[in-house]
User: What shape does this take?
Amino acid sequence: MKVSQTFIPTLREVPADAVIASHRLMFRAGLLRKLANGLFAYLPLGLRSFRKVETIIREEMDRIGSLEMKPTVVLPGELWKESGRWDAYGDALMRIKNRLGADFVISPTAEEAFTAIVRDELSSYRQLPLSLYQINTKYRDEIRPRYGVMRGREFVMKDAYSFHANDESLDKGYQDMGRAYRRIFKRCGLTVISVRADSGAMGGSGSEEFMVESEIGDNTLLLCKSCDYAANVEKAECKLDYSPRLSIEAAKAAAASTPAIEGIDTPNVKTIEELCGFLKTDAKTFIKTLIYRAVNVELDLTGAPGCDALKRQSAGASAAKGGVEFYPEAFFAVLIRGDLDVNEVKLAAFLKAAEVSLASEADVTRLSGAPVGFAGPVGLKNLPVIADFTASAINDGVTGALAKDRHYKHVAYGRDFDPWKTADIRTVKAGDRCPHCGGELYEKKGNELGHIFKLGFKYSKAMNVSYLDEEGKSHFPSMGCYGIGVDRAMASVIEEHHDDDGIIWPITVAPYQVIIVPIKYNGIVKETADKLSDDLEKAGIEVLLDDRDERPGVKFKDADLIGVPYRVVIGDKNLAGETPKVEIKRRTEKESRLFELGNAAQELAGMIRKELSELNE
Amino acid sequence: MKVSQTFIPTLREVPADAVIASHRLMFRAGLLRKLANGLFAYLPLGLRSFRKVETIIREEMDRIGSLEMKPTVVLPGELWKESGRWDAYGDALMRIKNRLGADFVISPTAEEAFTAIVRDELSSYRQLPLSLYQINTKYRDEIRPRYGVMRGREFVMKDAYSFHANDESLDKGYQDMGRAYRRIFKRCGLTVISVRADSGAMGGSGSEEFMVESEIGDNTLLLCKSCDYAANVEKAECKLDYSPRLSIEAAKAAAASTPAIEGIDTPNVKTIEELCGFLKTDAKTFIKTLIYRAVNVELDLTGAPGCDALKRQSAGASAAKGGVEFYPEAFFAVLIRGDLDVNEVKLAAFLKAAEVSLASEADVTRLSGAPVGFAGPVGLKNLPVIADFTASAINDGVTGALAKDRHYKHVAYGRDFDPWKTADIRTVKAGDRCPHCGGELYEKKGNELGHIFKLGFKYSKAMNVSYLDEEGKSHFPSMGCYGIGVDRAMASVIEEHHDDDGIIWPITVAPYQVIIVPIKYNGIVKETADKLSDDLEKAGIEVLLDDRDERPGVKFKDADLIGVPYRVVIGDKNLAGETPKVEIKRRTEKESRLFELGNAAQELAGMIRKELSELNE
Assistant: This one.
C-alpha cells in the first residue's frame, strides 16, 4: 500500500486531553480521531491493528472450541428485567425507549442475551458443555470517559459465556479460557499480571483478572515481594496484625481489666489526629465510626437495628426462582480501627449492595443525633453496626459519644457495644503483610484487560434455564463468563511498546510489517522500491511504501511515529555499488544494517516469519 | 468441524411470523434466533455465511481503493444537528439522551461522522479523491419490522463515502463503486436488477439502486418488455399518452371551443366511478383533486396562495451555508387525471418535503369548505394547487365544486383555473409505455440490496468542509455515498437459492463447503470419515462432519436443510469393494456419483476450487 493512497493523517501536536502515551500516540500516528467525548473513530491504519487484535482473540477462542455468534448490540429491556439487572445495574447502563415505548439497552455485556438463546435450545445434558462468544460493540454511559479508548463510552469486547452440567466441566471451561487468555496476551506482546480471586474449590466462584500495569490504572493492585500473590485492592486481604475476637464472650473476657467506660469533653477537637494528641493516645486505639448509605441492598436485614420499617423490593424473577430481592436504601454504621480505611468495594460486597457511599451530613446528624465527627457504637440504637475485624480487637479504645464535642474512652468491644455483624472491610495497603506468605505487599496501578469468572447459577436460575440429566431430572446449568476489551488491549500494547519517537508495534499486531522509505521516489530508487514492495507482498508481507514527495527526515519521523517494525531505506548511494544494497532497521534498534538488494526481500520475510512464529507459538 | 461440537439447532417447525423462505429457512436451519421484534442473533452457522458476505464486500471495496474505517455506532447528536438531519430524519432515527443530558443517535447511516472526520483532516486538493467505508452495526427504529433480517431494526451495513475535487472524479468514484457492487452481487450468487436514476450528466445527482426480485419487496419496479429500462415506481416516468399544455396560453387556446363551465347537482354520487356513470363520461375527463398535508417542506412557498402566514424554520447551518430551511407544515391541493394515482414520493420530492400524506377529514373540510369528495381547483383560493401534467391536458373536464353534492362540468385548465405549479406526480403502472422506447412496462416487486448515490455538496456545504485548490482557492468537495445491507444480501441469497428441502448455498457464501455424512459413525466408516475430513481441511476446504448418532434419513434431511453445497456419504457397503468408494452429491443435483475414496478429497477440492473461481472471477 502506498502512503499516498491511504489516509494516515499524522500530527505533530497532541490533543490537550491526551495525558497517556497510547492516547497521544493513537492520535499523533493517525490511528484514531475523536467524534465526541468517549467516542472514537478508528482510521484505516488504526483499524488494521485493531482487526489483528480481534483476529488473535478469535483464533484463540476457536482453538478452545468456543463458538462465535452475533446477537444484537441493542438488546430488549425485557431480558434485563428477567435477570434483575434492569434495576440492579447502575447508571452506566444505557437504557432507551423506542418510539413504541418499548425498553431497550445498548449492551454493556450480554449474559441475558446468551442465556435467553441457550434457554430456548437447551434440553439435554448431551448438549453441554456449550461455550459461545461474540466480538461486538458495547456501550457504557461513563460519566467521565478518559484516556482515549482506554476508557471510552463505546468499545468492542469479546465476551464469552459457557454452560455446564457439573463443577468439573465449569472448572475445565474456566481453565481453558484462562489458558486462551494467556496466549492472547502473549501473542499481542502484552505482559499481564494475573489477579486471582479463586475460592480454590472446584466449581465455586473463582475469578481471575488480567491486568496491565498502568500509571493511570483504574485498579490498585497489591503484590507480594516474596511470593506471586497479587490482588485487586477491592478484594485484597492481608495477614492480620492483631487478634480478632470473633465471639462476644472472648471480647468480654479481654475487657476484664479495662477501666469502666468514661465520657469526656473534647471541645474543638475534630480529627483523629487532634484527638490522639489531646488524649495522648494512638490512632490504633480509636474506633472510627462512619455512617454509610447503601443502595439496593440484597443482604437480609430482618431483625437488624432500625431496619424494621424497611421494605424489600424484587427485580426480575422472585428470589425463590433465582431472582433478586433488595432494600432500595439502607444506612449502616461502620466501625474500623482509627489508622485504617474502609474498603467500600468490600463493604458493598458484604452488603450485596449496588452502591455504598458516605451518608450526607444531614443523614449523619439525623441518624447519630450529633454533627459529623461524633458518631460511635455505644448506645447507637437505630442503625445496624458493621464492625471490621480490627475494631473487634480493641478492648480499651476511644470513640465518638453521639453528642457534639463528646467522646468516650476505655471503650471495650463486646462489653460496651455489640455490633450487628463483623466482617473484613479493611483497605489493604502497601506495607501490609501478604496473606499467603507474610511477605511485604507493594502497590501497582493496573488496568483490567480481561476477566474470567465463574458465574454459577445466577443467570440460569433467574432466567429459568434448565436441562435434563441422564435420568430425566431437570437441573440448572452452571455458567461462566469471560471478557476481553479489544480497544483497551490495543491501547495497552502501545502503552507497553513505545518510546519518545512513537509506537513500537509487536510484529503480530503491527498495521504493516515493513515500511519502505525511498530517499526520493523517482528513477532507479522508485523502481527498486516498487519491486521490493511487490516481492515482499508476494511473500505475504504487509508493506507500506512511503511514496510521498517529502524530505527523508519527515518520512523517517513518521515511520518511527507509526511504529512499523521494519524500515527499509532505499537510496541512490547504496544502490550504486557493484552489489546494490538497501538499509534495514528494526524499530526496536538504533542501528540499521545493509543487506544485498538481491536477498533483501527473502531475508526480511524470513526475519518477520521468525518473529511472528515466536510470538504466536 | 464435528456437528456434535458446534451448535446447529435445526427445527422442524417454522415460526408463525415467518412468511418468506429466507426467514423460515434461517430459523429452521439454525442460522438465526429472535431476541425481540426486529432483533436477531446469528448463531454460529449463520455467522459463518454472514462473515463470508462481509468479506466479499470488504475485498471488493479494498480492490477499488476504498479505505476501511470504524466510527462508533452511537454518534453524537451534535453532528446530526449540524447537517440538519436531527430534525429532518423521520422517527426511524433512534435518538437517545445519555445521563448527562447529551443527545446521541444510534447510527442508521454515517454521512455526518465521515464528513466530520474528513473536515478536520482535509486541506489540499492533493488529498482528493478520498473514499472511505465501514462495515458496521446500524439501527432503524422500524415501526413494523418484518421478514426476519430482511427488514430488521438492527442490521449491518457497508456504507462508503467519497470526497472529490471535481465532477470527473466523482463520476469515476461512482462508476468504480457500481462495478464493485456488480462484482459483489455476482460473487454472492445474486441476480440483481439495476435501477438507475442518473441525470445522465456527469457530476449531477445520479443514483443506482440494486434490487432483487421479491414477492414481499418494499419496492415496485417498472421494467420495459422491449429495452433495459427499469425504474422504481417512486420515480418511474412513462411516455405521455396525452399532450400536456405547459403554458396557460396554450391551455386557453385549447379551451376555445369548450362550453362554459357549469355547476351541477350530484346527490348521492360519491366515487369517480359513480360520477362517471351519472354523467356518462370517462374517468379520464375527471380532474381528481386531493388535499395533501406535507411536513418539513423545503420548496419556497413565497407568494403561493394561502401561504403568506407560513414561517420558515432552519435546521443546522443556514441555507446560505448549505443548510436547510423549511416550513414545518403546509397543505396543498393536488390535481391529477381521474384514472390515475398520485405518486406521493414524486410529490414529496417535488415539494422537497420530509413526508406527505392525505389531509385529515377535518383539514379537508376546513380548507376546501366542503366534505371530502368535493374538492376542486375552481375558486380554490387558500391553498397552492399543484397540477400533474395530465390535468393540464384536460380542456373539458369534471371536478368538485367546493360544496357538498356539487360538481362542475366543462371545466378547462387555464381558462377556469390556473394552478400554482405543474409537475410530474403520476404513478406509472403496468401497461404504461416505456419513456425510452415506448415498449410496454410491467411490474415486479423488489427489495433494495444496495444503492450508490451522488450526494453532491449537501453535506460538505452544511458541515462546512473545504479544501484549497492549486491556486489556493477554497472549495467544497463533492461527495458520493454508497450502501449495501449485509443481512439483507445474505437473506436474499437464500431467497434466490433454495428449494422445498432447504437452502442451496452458492459455494462462495456457504457456511461449510462439504458435509460428510457417515451412515453410522463407528468402525471403518468413522475412520474413513475422519480421514477424509482431515484431508479436505488440509486442502483448505471447510468441512462439517455429521458425527451424531442419528438415523441416516435425519442426517440427510438436515444436510439438505442447511444447504451445504457438497454432501459425501460414507457407508460400509461402498467401502467394502476392491476399490472403496464414497458417494458425492451436489446440493443442486438429485443424483449422487460414486468416487474412488483414494481420489475423493483431491477431486472434491478441485470441483470446489473451480466453482469458487467461477463465481469469484
Notes: The first strand of chain A starts at residue 32 and ends at 36. Chain A touches chain B through 51 residues (CB under 8 Å).
